[in-house]
Structure formats: structure tokens, C-alpha cells
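Quick one, C-alpha cells below. Sequence please?
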């Protein structure tokens, strides 16, 4: 968890053209997971990579709990634990780290990319993991690529771990050898979702790369002919790194729900001169099937009110989905960071009646939430039980990150994730 003591500040920001929307900016105590949590889905995505956290026993316990890994399992992440001798400067942390990497590689010959992941303890003692990564890459040249990124929970939220990881990978993408236009979908997606999008883009005649891919060594080329379609709304640093490499960013809502997914695909179709008729033809059956499924799954949500506490940075596009496709009334949409480039296409479709807030002053936000009495609050694990004790139904936001929720085929599943707490409460009230 992270906390602060800065007072709130109100301001407005322009989100599209000449239109402006009031964004309440708050700076105070926050309740969020740290970026180490992102390793849980990143290690499943990049199947030849290993994530070595340089941290404390608390870091190890967090990952063990979040991933649900049993003691006899062999996951592709671990924690190099800093003990009292490390923290006091009595031990050479770099020598210890080199020894642990050697032991790891002797056991796991399949590792091709090793991420050294910084934590709050390693950053507090100023352990330079960038230097360590370069030294280890040189030592294991031709055998192993070592990269580093920060998963520290200091002034960050948990999805920013993926942003830091992909920003590091993006710096090493090869230059495109030709001027052929290619689409790059940016953001870790479940394999089943990636397969579905691959088929749709193939039918549209669009050459697509996914970043990250299923191998950390399978790095797509990038250049001025690369067009970026963002799949996750928390990858601002990665997007800017790729843009600095010459890529063009396509503006689109995120692919949550039927309409969001269609509009996302439409942005790619227009960029690659695919006709509207072709897009309609390719997506028609999936849209019709998904629309019917969402209509059924969203029945318990229609007319109900929802508020979001800032946690995952998925809040704005998910709120758009709940408003447009599930008929929910939006009260407050809190997000840890508002990125005008990433969020513009979704935030402009939210009703003016709902409050959008950036950052957090947890006490003030809880007061607003309890006063407005929403039917459902989407929040982090640390706030769910206190709100439930006040009679407020909650949905854990972290589940929305861990679950496959993008695309047409997952649209009804996404609606069910929100409806289940209301259905369960109704059953208990009988």
C-alpha cells in the first residue's frame, strides 16, 4: 500500500477537441497494490522469460498469494530476498545477485530472458539493477538477455508494473527493415483473446504483431510505418517509448464489450484502408452473438448505479462499457492516473452527470461513495471488506485484470463479472 498527505486540488482538462471535462484531482492517502503483482500475468504471457524480484519476504509472500502458487510448483518467478546484512551494507548485494542468477540458470536451462525486478527495499538501498542487468547480459552473452524494471509500490499502482516491463522491452525492439505498414497491438492479452483478434485481423487483411508476444525473445520490428493499437489503458510510458521510435498511435476506445471492440477494430480498419462494408462483414456474426449474450448477462445491471475506486486504470473504459452496453448509472469514476491520449476516446462517451476523479484521497472518496449509496462499488481488495461491512456490494478490480475480458467473445463474461455480486446479494437477501 502507498500513502501520502497532500491536499486535494480541483482542475479541468481538455479531453477532445474544444470540449472540456471537469476532472477532480486528489492527492492524499491511497490504497493500491504494488507493481510486482503484474508479474502474475506477465510470466504466463512470456513463456521463456523469468522474473527475479529483488526484494523482501513481504514481496515473496505477495507474489505467492496473488499467483496462488503452491510450494511444490515451479513458476517462472522468484524473489531474491534482501536480509538485514544486505540492508545494512554488510554484504555485497551484487555478488549475491550474481550467485543467485548462476544457481537459477543451472536449474532452468530454458530461460532466455531474465527480468530483474526492483522493489521498494531494493530502491531504498539504491541497488542499481540496471548496472547488474548489463553486467549479467555481458557475462552470459549469447545465452541470456537480462533486463530490469521497477515493480516498486512507491507512488505507483499495480498495473504500472506491466507498463515498466514493456517500456524496457520496447527500447530493444529491432528497427523495421522495410516500409511495409504493420499493426502492433500493445498490451498483454490472454492467449485465447490474442487468437481471436489474430483471426479477425487476418480476415481484414491486416498484418499484426502482438507486443508482448508469447516469447520474450520474439520482438516485433518497429518504424515509421508501424501503427499502434493500444489494448490496455495503463501503458502510457510504453506508448510514448514506441511513439519516440517512430510509430503512429491510433486513437480508439478500448476493446471492452461489443461496441468498444467494434470501434477498436474500426480504428485499425480505417488506418489500413479497409472498407466499412468489409469490417461489417467480418465482424457481423461475432457482434450479433456477443450482443445477444451481453443483453442476457447485463439484465441484473440495468438501472443499477456503480462507482469506481481508483486501482487498476481500467476504470474509465469499463465505466463506458457498463453505461453504454449494460444500462448502468455512473456515479464516480476514480482512476489512479488520467492519460488524455489513452483515455480520450472512452471518457468523452461518459455522461456529464458522473464525476471523473484522478488520484485518491481515500477518506474523502469513501465519504462520497457512502453518501451516494451506489448499488455496486468496484475497488481494490483493501477496501472491499470495509465497504461490505457498511452494506455496500463490491467487485474486486484486480479480478478484471486477471480475467480474459477483451473482445467480442468475452463481452458477456465481462458483464457477468459485474453482475455476480448483485445476484449473490439478492440470493442472500431472500
Amino acid at each position: 500500500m502507498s500513502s501520502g498527505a497532500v491536499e486535494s486540488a480541483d482542475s479541468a482538462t481538455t479531453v477532445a477537441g474544444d470540449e472540456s471535462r471537469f476532472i477532480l484531482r486528489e492527492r492524499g492517502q491511497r490504497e493500491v497494490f504494488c507493481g510486482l503483482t503484474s508479474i502474475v500475468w506477465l510470466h504466463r504471457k512470456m513463456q521463456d522469460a523469468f522474473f527475479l524480484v529483488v526484494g523482501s519476504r513481504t514481496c515473496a509472500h505477495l507474489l505467492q498469494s496473488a499467483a496462488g502458487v503452491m510450494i511444490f510448483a515451479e513458476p517462472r518467478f522468484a524473489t531474491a530476498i534482501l536480509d538485514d546484512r544486505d540492508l545494512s551494507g554488510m554484504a555485497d548485494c551484487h555478488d549475491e545477485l550474481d550467485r543467485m542468477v548462476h544457481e537459477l540458470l543451472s536449474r532452468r536451462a530454458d530461460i532466455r530472458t531474465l527480468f530483474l525486478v526492483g522493489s521498494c527495499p531494493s530502491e531504498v538501498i539504491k541497488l542499481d539493477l540496471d548496472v547488474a542487468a548489463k553486467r549479467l547480459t555481458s557475462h552470459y552473452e549469447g545465452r541470456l538477455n537480462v533486463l530490469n524494471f521497477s515493480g516498486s509500490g512507491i507512488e505507483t499502482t499495480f498495473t504500472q508494473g506491466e507498463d515498466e516491463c514493456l517500456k524496457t522491452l520496447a527500447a530493444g525492439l529491432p528497427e523495421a527493415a522495410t516500409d511495409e505498414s504493420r499493426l502492433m497491438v500493445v498490451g498483454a492479452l490472454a492467449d485465447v483473446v490474442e487468437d481471436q483478434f489474430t483471426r479477425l485481423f487476418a480476415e481484414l487483411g491486416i498484418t499484426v504483431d502482438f507486443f508482448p508476444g508469447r516469447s520474450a525473445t520474439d520482438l516485433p520490428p518497429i518504424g515509421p510505418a508501424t501503427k499502434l493499437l493500444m489494448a490496455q489503458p495503463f501503458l502510457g510510458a510504453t506508448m510514448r517509448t514506441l511513439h519516440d521510435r517512430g510509430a503512429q498511435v491510433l486513437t480508439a476506445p478500448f476493446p471492452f464489450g461489443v461496441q468498444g471492440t467494434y470501434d477498436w477494430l474500426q480504428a485499425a480498419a480505417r488506418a489500413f484502408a479497409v472498407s466499412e462494408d468489409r469490417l461489417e462483414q467480418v465482424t457481423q456474426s461475432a457482434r450479433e452473438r456477443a450482443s445477444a449474450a451481453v443483453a442476457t448477462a447485463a439484465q441484473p445491471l440495468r438501472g443499477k448505479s456503480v462507482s469506481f475506486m481508483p486501482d487498476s486504470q481500467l476504470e474509465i473504459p469499463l465505466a463506458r462499457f457498463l453505461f453504454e452496453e449494460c444500462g448502468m448509472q455512473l456515479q464516480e469514476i476514480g482512476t489512479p492516473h488520467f492519460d488524455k491520449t489513452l483515455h480520450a476516446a472512452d471518457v468523452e462517451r461518459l455522461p456529464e452527470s458522473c464525476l471523473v476523479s484522478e488520484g485518491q484521497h481515500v477518506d474523502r472518496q469513501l465519504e462520497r461513495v457512502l453518501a451516494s449509496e451506489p448499488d455496486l462499488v468496484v475497488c481494490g481488495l483493501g477496501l472491499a471488506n470495509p465497504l461490505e461491512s457498511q452494506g455496500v456490494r463490491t467487485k474486486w478490480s484486480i479480478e478484471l485484470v486477471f480475467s480474459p475480458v477483451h473482445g467480442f467473445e468475452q463481452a458477456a463474461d465481462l458483464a457477468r463479472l459485474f453482475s455476480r455480486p448483485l445476484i449473490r446479494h439478492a440470493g442472500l437477501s431472500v
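Residues 1-9, 12-19, 87-91 have pLDDT under 50 and may be disordered. Residues 276-297 form the longest helix (22 residues).
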